[in-house]
Structures are given as structure tokens and as C-alpha cells.
Write a structure and sequence with these properties.
heterodimer; A: about 1200 residues; alpha+beta; 9-stranded antiparallel β-sheet; 40 helices; about 45% helix; B: alpha+beta; 5-stranded antiparallel β-sheet; 11 helices; 9 strands; about 30% helix; extended; ATP binding (chain A); Phospholipid-transporting ATPase (chain A); EC 7.6.2.1 (chain A); magnesium (chain A); membrane (chain A)
């Protein structure tokens, strides 16, 4: 019975300690309660029979099972749905039509040559879809088959798969397990029915939340008692709101109101609590987390959508020339056919060519022509793009510089069809926790008795220091932050200690040295506050013999670790006491001291402080208080302000460095004073009524005054490696970065500072609704009223802010918009959202805090649709799934926080910093590659396809092609496909280092320089020109009017067609060689190999039986090869085709070079090595002017300093904090 | 959205997280996967641009001159005879004339040789407005039948000239063969006849591999409609070179086909008498018929276009060379000059 033993140990009555959040409406519901008045009405119809899941097997109480499915298809729907998806592509539909028609005799080609490529393309895409869906299915299966302990009958519990869970089941969830469904908490291992929940997956918040059961269900804390348990829950219908719940419990003939604090949501995790019992209320897709999820949309890149438009244009051209063809055909049939005796026009079986019915012939011919000119619309384009994207994705997956050595996870392109979109991103929407930060707090610095300790510095400080060192004269305004290679950030902090949560370095305090310090008494107090003022529980780590702490928030954990390292190890908590092992010097043994905890006034976001009242072994009663500096400072006693000035200065330094600060203080209590207060406190605590909370706060307020300031702590919310640098460079690449976090505003702002998204001197626009406290549960009427007022208030705030931004004249002024979830609720409404967006765009950085997953998605949509540019959302948790799916590109951080974000994402990386390489290198390359590839593809097919059309005019529009069927089939499949694939897969305008060094190059993507209409039309014009040259020069030279060989033979159709086709092969391959700027052996092989393969094919085809090759038999060896005119015409036409393009690019490079041209030249002439300074200078200029990020911050600082120097002001002035 | 798997850091959702497997996820280094393959990065420097255009000019102008002179060296005699070979009384009734098998279609023409024509002199007939490239026409042949005696019944693709009305397969079948050109020419000079060599006018490969020496014409031109020429049924197809040449369909509606060769020099100002059997009907579609005598050089027959095109392009490139020299002189730009970078050219543009 080891379990019961452990259980006993945990039987702490937390409610004794907790003052606020364990308030429990101990009486049954008053009927006047507005929240539940509507139960049973529409929207509130759910009835749950606790412990009687059987009642839910039948209607009307039959609710969905706990089985979840996130797949797009199932076995039955896969084929129809996937095929439908495939044929939503215009081109595929056209090819399908063509393939069907190719089965009829009107087709100019054989059916196989039409159907096979289509089947290949569609099959490939469908196989990809199927694979992706299979992965999702396996993921679902894994979740569905997790096990949970469920009450079976007679007080016996057994394990069941999650998917078997029904509404009404009683489950027992153990520590660190996820809740399988939305539960009503009945009881926990703690006697007073509280439990800790981590809601990371729901809202990204890292603080543990305290949930508490109803008083009445407290006795239900043994397996056996569920034998008899019965109750009915009436509550709201499934809805996506995570923070509300309306319902009541009918138990033992009484009705109790249930509020959100009794509800445990699926996908949150039980922490610090051995077990809980709960009743399933919502299952499967009814759960709040599932209600928050949205269907994963199929995304298509911007380029692909634009490509569709080109396809439409080409389709129109196709229809046009087909119409011309068929009209020409009909005219020929009508007026000339009867003259053409050699065609036997009067043949009775002749329907297609019957001169009596030219209209019918024309119509039938229209179909023939549509198929014949189908080469204008390249089916192989899709195959090639798929192939290229797979290769590109492979490069992303294989990139060692995006491989996380520690986690062992490489980057992964989960969907390959968005590669090029990576090069066009305009706005990045980022989650905070787990994405920017590691969700780990490190104790970094402290200020005790007015002296700042801790020599470690945050990343911002290091950058600034580095800069100051390298530019000791402030003569130049160019700021050089060494971009270096991204894999080894220069600023990587080398830390001596590897203790998690502790990065403090200062020998003055370590190893007991603090006893030598002047104010050792104050330091002692400081350490005691760290060790005592918290709500954590120690847990013995059996491996190391040390303690781990299970704290509500990571800060607290960091404090305890720090205290431990300073020699104040918190080792035990009992119902009423905290035990500390104190060790004053390393040589001494520890002394265990007991501190009686008399009261605990815990933290909430309104109070912004927490206090404990303890009595030490000597009987002295102390109030220890830690809290936000402003709160603490206003509660200091007159003689407690000794260190206020120094501490304030330190605090502002810490804040600027992006550290989270708390001020620590204490107060010595007289016994009588305490007793008097405690009496009042107990009275308040046991009072009944709505104002109890207010009373408690008022009483707590009485105690938390006349404090003596001890010092302040600075904790670093540890950023992931390289995050500030990455943000800096992304900002320099011209990207906008928004942070959307579920966390508190203060935390978000801290991180804003740490990432340099915020800095001093930036004007912060904080949009929030009138200070309404979250615990407020007023009557609905007032609520509605205030809702309206809040909205108006917000609207006013936004107008004012906008006014201010618009009137700002200082070019260096930067604004930051900070908005919380409540504000966002209003700001996202239709009438305000445009103004909100306008304001947000004007601001350099935007931080949204306390946003729900749904709001994240809504903000993403607002940006996506409002700005009309590409958005990228990056996040790691389930709460980011909505935004990841909503954004044009979703990137998941494959960290430790589960897989939902990754599963929903299009790309996954294991660290935020890899985003830079993903976008600036891979995105840039992929964008250019795909854009060039598509342009070239259209060029190539226009050049080829139109020659077929021109020939028709000379062949009475009969639908005969001058080329052999095989040539045409091979044109796209073999002869020109590999060069274009090599262009799409391997082209590099500049090397990856240069991409990283010149972030401005990235802007070529968002500005869409390589796929705008002028460029597309230019390429199409080039195709048109080439087709004209190819056809008319060939025909003029090879016109069968005179012999083409020295022995007098004239050219027949096969010879003309083959010669013309040779010219096409040369022309398009030389064209692609001119397009490429990067030749590895692969490109050489592909381009020159394609040309060679054409001749090889001709030889091989010519050697095959004439039954296969027809008139092409021996054509190269016998007919064309010995004819010099064949070779010199090829030379002429290939040159003429490419001459204008060559002139164009030569002229452009000479007079109007693009950035990458100049950089290519610099690299070519190795100027970067000769003239280091120039290279460095250009690199720094190549950054987009930005107001966020490191560099901007350092610049701002320098401006500030320069301004001061200019004014010859004394160097020490009080820094302005705005 | 599904519940998370805190324990699993795998991307593919599989269960294994042992260190070894983690290690194996590390991409292997290769210059290919890291996109670091050695590459040549050619650059269009002014030197190269001018060099390319100069090279083209230097290459093209001689070729153009050479081919132009070769073309000029070709002596060509063209005689259109379709109109003149209709008796005067039949003008306006050319169709009746040509379709009536009893009329005398012999016609005598005199040609003057303008310049000495070195042997061999190629004899061509040229037709106009004849759509040998019409789809109905092109498809109407059976290669199998021509090659294999056993496949003589494979005439489906030859419709409407596959079988005789009584169902026997026609060899060679199809519209192409059926419309075989059948004018004949006889040359004489000063009343001495000139031998026309009709051997080797077709491709050797056609004779050896496409038209079998075991297949003989059968049921040819026996149907209701008589198209063009008839074939001697005792000569195998491989030796029917006129047919083989005809079956090589022309790409354009105006075409010449080799008729034969005169293997003797024709001197300047000599007058040649040609006796033409004007059998072939081009009158119904208004096509011209021409007799062409031509010599050939290394570029084949007369082809001024090629030379002119080469010279034009060569000249164009020469002017491009000049244009670019002027451009580089007047708008010089040091390659790799950073002042041309967009942020240096219009600094305001990069301010976002």
C-alpha cells in the first residue's frame, strides 16, 4: 500500500495557506444567480448524469464519444474528396478534359500520351495527401489509445482507452497526466480538493493554475465511495470559450453552482497533485480545446495562385488560337476542300472533312485544336514543380545549420508546396512561451541593500557593450553587429554554472562569501525571503539527493534554486511550517531551521505581490513580501527607504536589459499587532457574502505596509538561443514581428524588452479596457453596460493613438502597440478592426497579451486579409494551432511542448533562431527558383506550342503537326525537363552567407520582383518572339522549294520538323543557361546533357524499326547529319532566339543592376576580400531601416548619447523612462 | 487538434526517442545536401558581353558570305508549264482536258541554260497549293503493308483508299500513293536525247528498310476513282523510287520533289527540249506545276535566305558591339560598385 502512504504525505490543506484563490462559495446556490438562470434553455441544455454513463448511451442524452479525429479523409471519402481537391486546379481539369477527349478519334495524339502524364501528376499529389493524412491518423490513434483510470462499478477502477470514455464517467487522473476530456473536479489528493493545472497547451501560460472542487464533493476522494455516487450536472452546450463555464450540480437533492474553477480542460495537465477524481462533462470534439480547433486548410502559395491566373491567360490564348484554327479549318473545308481531289472529299464515309457540313467539321476540329495546342499549358509544369519542391524540401530537411544538436531534431518541411512562400513573408506572428523563450527562468542578478550583484549580463547588454568597444568613436552612424555565421552566435553566453534556473555569477555572494559583506544582515534577510516567500513544494530527487521544486511559476522555482545555491535550501513543507537548511559557509554543515507559516497572502495579478507571515525559531514574527517594484515602493515605511534610490536605479537597468524584476521587503511584527490583525483576517475569511474578497484584500492591505526594502531580484525569462539576434536580422530583412501571447502583459513586455522589440524611448501605446479585474463576477446587466463603455473607451484610445502616430515628426520615433485579450475582443470587431490594423501597422512592434487561441487566429486573419501580404505564424503549443493554420505559412517549434503545433504546421524547426535561415536563405532561394522556373516554363511552352499553331496555317488547319508525336511527348518529359528542374532545385543567385549578410536581398521576395506581371509578360513575349523566329526562320531555310543537301534531295515534313525541333531544343536550353547564374556539374549535365540526349534520341529513334519511327527513320544519320545547312541553321536560329534576351540582361546589368547583380560582381572580383571596409559598410547598409531589434536599440542609445554629448550635458542624468 | 505528447519529440510521431535514433536524425553532411557544390558563376561583364557579340559577328559574317556565294553558284532553271501545256482550245476547260484520258497531253518546252550547269543536274517537279501536309492525307498510309508482304491487308489506316470496292487490299494503299505524281519529262539537246538517271533519287534507307523488295503493287489504281500515276506491278516497291519520293510528304503546300538527275554538264546558252506528259491534275485546285533544273552546292539548292540571315545577324551583332562599347563608355559602371546597390541609390526606398 505504498500509494496510500504517499497519499498521506500529501494531505496538506492548502486552503489554509491560500487566501484568495481558494475561496469557495460554501453555500448552495441562491436562485437569483443570473449565471445559471438560463440553464435548460437554448445553449444550456446539456445534462450529465454523473457516474451513470449508461444513461448517455441513448438519445437524447447521447453525446459524442471521446474519439477524436483530425484527418481530412477516411477510407471511403478519400478517393472522391482527394480527386475533387486535385481537380480544383484549373489546369488539371483541362488535362482531364483533354484526356477524355483523347479517347475519341478527333484527338491528334494517342490517348496514352494524354492520360499517362495526368495520371502521374494526380497520382503523385494524391499519394502525398494520403501520406500526410495517414500521419495525422496515426497521431490521432496514439491519442485515442492513451489510457485513463475509469470507475467501472462498485468502486472499482480500471484502465480504459481515452476514446472509450463517455460523458458521465468518473475518472481518476494521476500526476503529470493529461486530462482526457473536460472534467468536473470532484476531489483531489489534497484534503481540501484543490489541484494544480498546467494549461500550457491551451493558452500558453506557464503559471500553474489552481483549481478547486466544490465543498460538497470533497468526501469523494476514495475509489470505494464512487459505488454510491450519483449526481446530475446541467450546464452549457459545448463552446470554444476556455475561460467561462456555466452550470450547476444537483447532488444529494441540492443544487450547487459550478464555475470555471471546477472545470479541468482536456489537454491541460495535472501538476503537483498526486491524483484527482472528476466527472466527464464534455468528450471528444465537444471539449473546449477541440472546439477551439479549426479545420486545417489546404494552403497554396501566392505564386501558385498567380500561376493560376497565367494559366487562365494561356487558356484564353489556347481557346483563341483553337477558334482561329477551327474557323480556318471550316473555311478551308467549305471553299477549297471540294477542289482537293487528292483528299477524296466526296468519300461517303468522310464526315470530318465533308465540304457540305463545314460548321460541324469546324466544331469537331475545335476539340482537336484544343488538344493539339495543349502544349501551351504545360502539364509537366506541375510535375516539375512537385519534383522541385520535394528537392527543396529535402534541402530544408537536410540543412545542417538548421539541425538542433541538443534536441537532435532537424528542420522539416512538412508540406512542400509553400517553399517559395517562405521568401515572401511580410509579417511574422510569433508566440512567446516556448517559441521566443524556453519557459525557463534564470536567476541572473540581484540588488541587495543598494548594491547590485551579479556580473552576468543579458544579451542586449552584451551587444551594446560589444558595439561600444568596436566603435569607440561615435563618428559613424552605421551600426555593425557582427552577423557572423548563424550557427555559432557570437553572443552565446559562456556560463560557468549549468544549474537550471541559476545563472548568477558573483563571488561576493557565493560560497558563503556574503557573510564578509557590509550588509550581511540584509543579505541574510534577502535570502530568507527568497527561501520562504513562495507556495512551492520540495521534492527529493532520489538520484542526486538534492531537491527539485514544484512551483506555481518558473520564477518561484528560480528563486528557490537561487536560495539553495546561496546556502538556504528549502527542504520540507508541512501543514504549518517551512524548513530551511541554512549553511553559512561551505565548510560548515547545514542547520535546519523551521519557520512557522502563519499566513500566506498569495499572488494575483491585481495585487501584484505576495506575502507570508512567518514565525522563526526565536519567536519573531515577520512579514515577508515580494512584489512588483511600484507596489512595494508605495508601501515602504519611512525608515525602510534606505536603499530606494539605488534599488530604483538598478531596477531600471534590469528592466532595460529585459529582466523580470521583483522587489523584496519585510516587516517585523509585534506579537500583539499580529494577533489583532489575524483576528480580523480570520473574521474576513469566514465572512459570507459577495464582498468577502474585497474584505480580505482590505485586511491584507493593512498588514502589507510599513515595509523595509531589502533589495530586488532580476530573473531572466530565458530566451531561446539566438532569439534576439534572429529577431534583429529578421527586422533588418524588413519583416514585421508581432508577438501574440497568452501570458500576462508584464511578462510579455519583459520579453519585448529582452528581444529588443521594445526599448526605452519607444512610445508605448497600451490598449486595454478600463481596469476591470478578472475576478469580477458582477451581474450581467452591469457587465453588458461596461462592455459597451469599454468598447467606446477603446475606440477613443485608438483614435488618440492614431492621431499621435500621425502627428509624429521625429523620424526616429518608434511606437509600440500593446493590447490585451479583452481589448482585442473589441478591437477585432468589424467596426473597429480596420482602425486597429491601421494603428498596428504604424507601430514598430505589436504585442498582444492574454489572447486566446481563437484570438490568435483572428489576429492572424486580420493581418493576412487586411494587409494582403504573406503572414507567417510561429508557435509551439496547442494554443498556437489556430494561428498556425490561419497564417499563410505556419511554422511549428518542435520543442518539448507536445506535437500539436508541429502537426498543424507547414514547416517545423526546433529553435526560433532557425527561422532566419529558413526565411532568408531557403525562402529567398526557393522563391527565386520557383519564380524563375515558372516563367521559364511558360516561355518554353509558348515558344514550342505556337510553332505548332503557325504550322497549321500552312497545313490548311487540318490538325497535322510538323513534329513527330514522340518529339512532342519527349519535349516536356525528357528534353527540357531536367534543366528546368535543376534551375528550380539548385539555382543560387548569391550564396547562403551573402543572403544572411545582406538581409535586404530578402525584400526581393515580398516585393515580388521576380514574379510580377511585367516579368511574366516579358517572358511570355520572349516566348512569342522565339516561336516566331523558330518557325519562320526554319521554314524559310528548309522550305521544300530547294534542295537542302548537296546531293539534291529536298526536305520532307520529317526533316523540316526534326530540324525545327533541334533549333527549339538548342534555343530553350541556351535560354535556361543564360537564366542560370550558378552552374554546378549538375546544371552542366542537365543543360548540355539535354541537348546531347536529343541527338542521342534521334539516333536511337532513327535506328528503331521504321514501323515505329516512320519517316524519322535514320533521319539524323542519313538525311540531316550530312547536310551542312542543318547545322548552320541550328546555329543561326539558336543565336537569334536568344539575342534579345542577352541584350536585355546585358543592358540591365550595365545600367540598372539589381542588388544581387552587384553583389555577384563584388564576389566575382573578390572585392569583398580586398576592400573589407566597403563590404562591411554595405552589409550594414543592406539592412532595412527598422525600429525594432538590437541594432535599432543600440542606435537609439547612441543617438541618445550623442545628443547628450552634443549638448555638453553632464554624463550622469536620470534616464527618461517613458 | 489532438492531445499533446509531451514525451515525444519525434516529428514523425513514432515512439522511439532513444539517443541512438536521435543521433541518426542528424542529416549527413554532403556538399550536395548543404548546397555547397563547387559552382562556376559566370558573369556578364562588359568584356564578355562585347566578346559574345563580337564572336557572333565574326562567326556569322563569314558563314553568311560563304553560304551566299554558294547559293549564288547554284544555277537554276525554272519552267512553269501547267498553263502553257493546255491546248489553246481547252483554255477555261482545263479540268475536262486533264480528266479526259483520250486527249493528247504531250507538250514540248524549250529551256535555255543561262550558265553552265555542272553535273549532276537535279531535275525537280514543283507543285503548288498541294496540301501534302493535310492530316487526312498524311495519315493515309500503311507502313506495315509497305514493309511486310504478310501485312498487305493492314489497310485500315489507309481509308478511304484502303480496299478496292470489292474488298481487296490495295498495295500500296492510302491517299498518298493513290495521288502519285505522274507527269513525265524527256530531255533532249540538239535532237540528241539526254539520259535521265532516276536511280538513287530516294533515300537509301527508304529503299532498303521501308519499302520491301518483296512487296509488289496490287490492285493499285483499280478503283472507281483514278488518282495519279500507276505502278508497274512487276517491280517491287523498293525499286519504285518515284513512289518512294512521293511518299515523303512535303511540309508545305508548295514543294519540289526530285525527279531524276542529268549526269552530264549542261553548257551555257544551250537550249534543251523537254517533252512533258502533262498528266497530273493540278487544275482543280489551281496549283502550278513547274519543272526545275538545278545544280547543288554544299548548302544544297539555291538558298539566298540563309546567307542573308547570317549576314543580317552578323551585322546586327556588330552594331550591338558598337552600341555596347558606346554604352560602357558613356555610362561606365565599375563592376561591383556598391553605389549601385538599391539602398545606396535611393536610400528612402529602403526606409520602411
Amino acid at each position: 500500500m505504498a500509494r496510500t502512504g504517499r497519499r498521506k504525505r500529501d494531505r496538506l490543506r492548502w486552503s489554509k495557506l491560500y487566501t484568495f484563490s481558494c475561496l469557495r462559495p460554501s453555500v448552495q446556490l441562491e436562485t437569483s444567480d443570473t449565471g445559471t438562470a438560463s440553464l435548460g434553455g437554448p445553449g444550456f441544455s446539456r445534462v450529465v448524469h454523473c457516474n451513470q454513463p449508461r444513461l448517455h448511451y441513448k438519445k437524447p442524452l447521447k453525446y459524442p464519444t471521446n474519439y477524436i479525429s483530425t484527418t481530412k479523409y477516411n477510407i471511403i471519402t478519400f478517393l472522391p474528396k482527394a480527386i475533387f481537391e486535385q481537380f480544383r486546379r484549373v489546369a488539371n481539369l483541362y488535362f482531364l478534359m483533354a484526356a477524355i477527349l483523347s479517347l475519341t478519334p478527333v484527338a491528334p495524339f494517342s490517348a496514352v500520351s494524354m492520360i499517362a502524364p495526368l495520371a502521374f501528376v494526380v497520382g503523385l499529389s494524391m499519394a502525398k495527401e494520403a501520406l500526410e493524412d495517414w500521419r495525422r491518423f496515426m497521431q490521432d490513434m496514439k491519442v485515442n489509445s492513451r489510457k485513463v483510470s475509469v470507475h467501472r462499478s462498485d468502486g472499482l477502477f480500471g484502465y480504459k482507452h481515452w476514446e472509450k470514455l463517455r460523458v458521465g464517467d468518473v475518472v481518476k487522473v494521476e500526476k503529470d497526466q493529461f486530462f482526457p476530456a473536460d472534467l468536473l473536479l470532484l476531489s483531489s489528493s489534497y484534503e481540501d480538493g484543490i489541484c494544480y493545472v498546467e494549461t500550457m497547451n491551451l493558452d500558453g501560460e506557464t503559471n500553474l493554475k489552481v483549481k478547486r472542487s466544490l465543498e460538497v464533493t470533497l468526501p469523494l476522494d476514495e475509489d470505494e465511495v464512487f459505488k454510491e455516487f450519483k449526481g446530475v450536472i446541467r450546464c452549457e452546450d459545448p463552446n470554444p470559450s476556455l475561460y467561462t463555464f456555466v452550470g450547476n450540480l444537483e447532488y444529494e437533492r441540492q443544487v450547487y453552482a459550478i464555475d470555471p474553477t471546477q472545470i479541468l480542460l482536456r489537454d491541460s495537465k495535472l501538476r503537483n497533485t498526486q491524483y484527482i477524481y472528476g466527472v466527464v462533462i464534455f468528450t471528444g470534439h465537444d471539449t473546449k480545446v477541440m472546439q477551439n480547433s479549426t479545420d486545417s486548410p489546404s494552403k497554396r502559395s501566392r505564386i501558385e495562385r498567380q500561376m493560376d491566373k497565367i494559366i487562365y491567360i494561356l487558356f484564353s490564348v489556347l481557346v483563341l488560337i483553337s477558334l482561329i484554327s477551327s474557323i480556318g479549318f471550316a473555311v478551308n473545308i467549305k471553299y477549297y476542300m471540294h477542289n482537293w481531289w487528292f483528299l477524296q472529299p466526296d468519300d461517303k464515309d468522310n464526315k470530318l472533312y465533308n465540304p457540305k457540313t463545314p460548321a460541324i467539321s469546324g466544331l469537331i476540329h475545335l476539340i482537336t485544336a484544343l488538344i493539339l495546342y495543349g502544349y501551351l499549358i504545360p502539364i509537366s509544369l506541375y510535375v516539375s514543380i512537385e519534383v522541385v519542391k520535394v528537392v527543396q524540401a529535402m534541402f530544408i530537411n537536410q540543412d545542417l545549420q538548421m539541425y538542433d544538436e541538443e534536441a537532435g531534431i532537424p528542420a522539416q518541411a512538412r508540406t512542400s508546396n509553400l517553399n517559395e512562400e517562405l521568401g515572401q513573408v511580410h509579417t511574422i506572428l510569433s508566440d512567446k512561451t516556448g517559441t521566443l523563450t524556453c519557459n525557463q527562468m534564470d536567476f541572473l542578478k540581484c540588488s541587495i541593500a543598494g548594491i547590485s550583484y551579479g556580473v552576468g549580463s543579458s544579451e542586449v547588454e552584451m551587444a551594446a557593450a560589444k558595439h561600444m568597444a568596436s566603435h569607440s568613436d561615435f563618428g559613424t552612424s552605421e551600426i555593425e553587429i557582427e552577423p557572423s555565421t548563424p550557427i555559432t552566435p557570437v553572443f552565446e553566453r559562456v556560463r560557468k554554472s549549468t544549474i537550471k534556473g541559476f545563472s548568477f555569477e558573483d563571488d561576493r555572494l557565493m560560497n558563503g562569501n556574503w557573510t564578509q559583506e557590509q550588509n550581511s544582515g540584509t543579505i541574510l534577510m534577502f535570502f530568507r525571503i527568497l527561501a520562504l516567500c513562495h507556495t512551492a513544494i520540495p521534492e527529493l530527487n532520489e538520484e542526486t539527493g538534492g531537491f527539485n521544486y514544484e512551483a506555481e511559476s518558473p520564477d518561484e522555482g528560480a528563486f528557490l534554486v537561487a536560495a539553495r545555491e546561496f546556502g538556504f535550501e528549502f527542504c520540507k513543507r508541512t501543514q504549518s511550517s517551512v524548513f530551511i537548511r541554512e549553511r553559512y559557509s561551505p565548510s560548515e554543515g547545514p542547520i535546519e531551521r523551521e519557520f512557522k507559516v502563519l499566513n500566506l497572502l498569495e499572488f494575483n495579478s491585481k495585487r501584484k505581490r505576495m506575502s507570508v507571515i512567518v514565525r522563526d525559531e526565536s519567536g519573531q514574527t515577520l512579514l515577508l513580501c515580494k512584489g512588483a517594484d511600484s507596489i512595494i515602493f508605495e508601501r515602504l515605511s519611512k525608515n525602510g527607504r534606505t536603499y530606494e534610490v539605488d534599488t530604483t536605479r538598478h531596477l531600471s537597468e534590469y528592466g532595460e536589459a529585459g529582466l523580470r524584476t521583483l522587489a523584496l521587503s519585510y516587516r517585523v511584527l509585534e506579537e500583539s499587532e499580529y494577533l489583532a490583525w489575524n483576528a480580523e483576517f480570520v473574521k474576513a475569511k469566514t465572512s459570507i457574502g459577495a464582498d468577502r474578497e474585497a474584505q480580505l484584500e482590505r485586511v491584507a492591505e493593512l498588514m502589507e505596509k510599513d515595509l523595509i526594502l531589502v533589495g530586488a531580484t532580476a530573473v531572466e525569462d530565458k530566451l531561446q538561443r539566438g532569439v534576439p539576434q534572429c529577431i534583429d536580422r529578421l527586422a533588418q530583412a524588413g519583416l514585421k514581428i508581432w508577438v501574440l501571447t497568452g501570458d500576462k502583459m508584464e511578462t510579455a513586455i519583459n520579453i519585448g524588452y529582452a528581444c529588443s522589440l521594445l526599448r526605452q524611448g519607444m512610445k508605448q501605446i497600451c490598449l486595454s479596457t478600463a481596469p476591470s479585474d478578472p475576478t469580477q463576477q458582477d451581474a450581467k446587466k452591469i457587465f453588458l453596460l461596461s462592455e459597451q463603455a469599454a468598447k467606446e473607451n477603446l475606440s477613443l484610445q485608438m483614435s488618440n493613438a492614431l492621431q499621435m502616430v500621425k502627428l509624429e515628426r521625429d523620424p526616429h520615433a518608434a511606437f509600440a502597440l500593446i493590447i490585451d485579450g479583452k481589448g482585442l475582443t473589441h478591437a477585432l470587431q468589424d467596426d473597429l478592426k480596420d482602425r486597429f490594423l491601421e494603428l498596428a501597422i504604424e507601430c514598430a512592434s505589436v504585442i498582444c497579451c492574454r489572447v486566446s487561441p481563437k484570438q490568435k487566429a483572428l489576429v492572424t486573419r486580420l493581418v493576412k486579409e487586411g494587409v494582403g501580404k504573406t503572414t507567417l505564424a510561429i508557435g509551439d503549443g496547442a494554443n498556437d494551432v489556430g494561428m498556425i493554420q490561419e497564417a499563410d505559412i505556419g511554422v511549428g517549434i518542435s520543442g518539448v511542448e507536445g506535437m500539436q503545433a508541429v502537426m498543424a504546421s507547414d514547416f517545423s524547426i526546433s529553435q526560433f533562431r532557425f527561422l532566419e535561415r529558413l526565411l532568408v536563405v531557403h525562402g529567398h532561394w526557393c522563391y527565386k527558383r520557383i519564380a524563375q522556373m515558372i516563367c521559364y516554363f511558360f516561355y518554353k511552352n509558348i515558344a514550342f506550342g505556337l510553332t505548332i499553331f503557325y504550322f497549321e496555317a500552312y497545313a490548311a488547319f487540318s490538325g497535322q503537326s510538323v513534329y513527330d508525336d514522340w518529339y512532342m511527348l519527349l519535349f516536356n518529359v525528357v528534353l527540357t525537363s531536367l534543366p528546368v528542374i535543376s534551375l528550380g532545385a539548385f539555382e543560387q543567385d548569391v550564396s547562403s552567407e551573402v543572403c544572411l549578410q545582406f538581409p535586404a536581398l530578402y525584400q526581393q521576395g515580398p516585393k515580388n520582383l521576380f514574379f510580377d506581371w511585367s516579368r511574366i509578360l516579358g517572358w511570355m513575349g520572349n516566348g512569342l518572339y522565339s516561336s516566331l523566329v523558330l518557325y519562320f526562320l526554319s521554314i524559310s531555310i528548309f522550305s521544300s522549294e530547294s534542295a537542302f543537301r548537296s546531293d539534291g534531295q529536298t526536305a520532307d515534313m520529317a526533316a523540316v520538323g526534326t530540324a525545327m525541333f533541334t533549333c527549339i531544343i538548342w534555343a530553350v536550353n541556351i535560354q535556361i543557361a543564360l537564366t542560370m547564374s550558378h552552374f554546378t556539374w549538375i546544371q552542366h549535365l542537365c543543360v548540355w546533357g539535354s541537348i546531347a540526349s536529343w541527338y542521342l534520341f534521334l539516333v536511337a529513334y532513327g535506328t528503331a524499326s521504321p514501323l515505329i519511327s516512320g519517316n524519322a527513320f535514320q533521319i539524323l544519320v542519313e538525311a540531316l547529319g550530312p547536310a551542312s545547312i542543318y547545322w548552320i541553321s541550328t546555329l543561326l536560329i539558336a543565336v537569334v532566339c536568344n539575342l534579345p534576351y542577352l541584350v536585355h540582361i546585358s543592358y540591365q546589368r550595365a545600367c540598372n543592376p539589381l542588388d544581387h547583380h552587384v553583389i555577384q560582381e563584388i564576389k566575382y572580383y573578390k572585392k569583398d576580400l580586398e576592400d573589407h571596409d566597403m563590404w562591411k559598410r554595405e552589409r550594414s547598409k543592406a539592412r532595412q531601416k527598422t525600429k525594432i531589434g538590437f541594432t535599432a536599440r543600440v542606435e537609439a542609445k547612441i543617438r541618445h548619447l550623442k545628443g547628450r554629448l552634443h549638448k555638453k550635458l553632464p554624463s550622469i542624468t536620470i534616464q527618461t523612462v517613458s | 487538434m489532438s492531445s499533446s505528447l509531451a514525451s515525444s519529440s519525434n516529428l514523425d510521431g513514432s515512439d522511439d526517442t532513444s539517443p541512438q535514433q536521435k543521433q541518426s536524425k542528424k542529416p549527413k553532411y554532403s556538399r550536395f545536401t548543404q548546397q555547397e557544390l563547387p559552382a562556376c558563376k559566370p558573369l556578364l561583364t562588359p568584356g564578355i558581353v562585347i566578346g559574345i557579340f563580337a564572336l557572333v559577328a565574326v562567326l556569322f559574317i563569314p558563314i553568311g558570305l560563304a553560304s551566299l556565294s554558294a547559293s549564288e553558284a547554284v544555277v537554276e532553271v525554272i519552267d512553269r508549264y501547267d498553263a502553257d501545256c493546255v491546248p489553246n482550245d481547252m483554255h477555261g476547260k482545263e479540268l475536262d482536258f486533264i480528266q479526259n484520258s483520250s486527249t493528247n497531253k504531250t507538250c514540248t518546252r524549250r529551256l535555255t541554260i543561262p550558265k553552265t550547269m555542272k553535273s549532276p543536274v537535279h531535275i525537280y517537279y514543283e507543285l503548288d497549293n498541294f496540301y501534302q501536309n493535310h492530316r487526312r492525307y498524311v495519315k493515309s498510309r500503311s507502313d506495315k503493308q509497305l514493309l511486310q508482304p504478310s501485312k498487305e491487308a493492314e489497310t485500315k489506316v489507309c481509308a478511304p483508299e484502303g480496299n478496292t470496292p470489292d474488298g481487296k487490299p490495295i498495295v500500296p494503299c492510302g491517299l498518298i500513293a493513290w495521288s502519285l505524281f505522274n507527269d513525265t519529262y524527256q530531255f533532249s539537246i540538239n535532237s540528241g536525247s539526254i539520259q535521265v538517271n532516276k536511280k538513287n533519287i530516294a533515300w537509301a534507307s527508304d529503299r532498303s528498310h521501308k519499302f520491301s523488295k518483296d512487296v509488289y503493287p496490287k490492285n493499285f489504281q483499280k478503283g472507281a476513282l483514278i488518282g495519279g500515276g500507276k505502278l508497274n506491278e512487276s517491280i517491287p516497291l523498293s525499286e519504285q523510287e518515284d513512289l518512294i519520293v512521293w511518299m515523303r510528304t512535303a511540309a508545305l503546300p508548295t514543294f519540289r520533289k526530285l525527279y531524276g538527275r542529268i549526269e552530264k554538264d549542261l553548257n551555257a546558252n544551250e537550249e534543251i527540249t523537254v517533252v512533258i506528259e502533262n498528266n497530273y491534275n493540278t487544275y482543280s485546285f489551281g496549283g502550278q506545276k513547274k519543272l526545275v533544273l538545278s545544280t547543288a552546292t554544299w548548302i544544297g539548292g539555291k538558298n539566298n535566305f540563309l546567307g542573308v540571315a547570317y549576314l543580317t545577324v552578323g551585322g546586327l551583332c556588330l552594331s550591338l558591339v558598337l552600341a555596347f562599347i558606346v554604352l560602357y563608355l558613356f555610362k561606365p559602371r565599375t563592376l561591383g560598385d556598391p553605389s549601385y546597390l538599391s539602398w545606396n541609390r535611393n536610400p528612402s526606398a529602403s526606409t520602411d
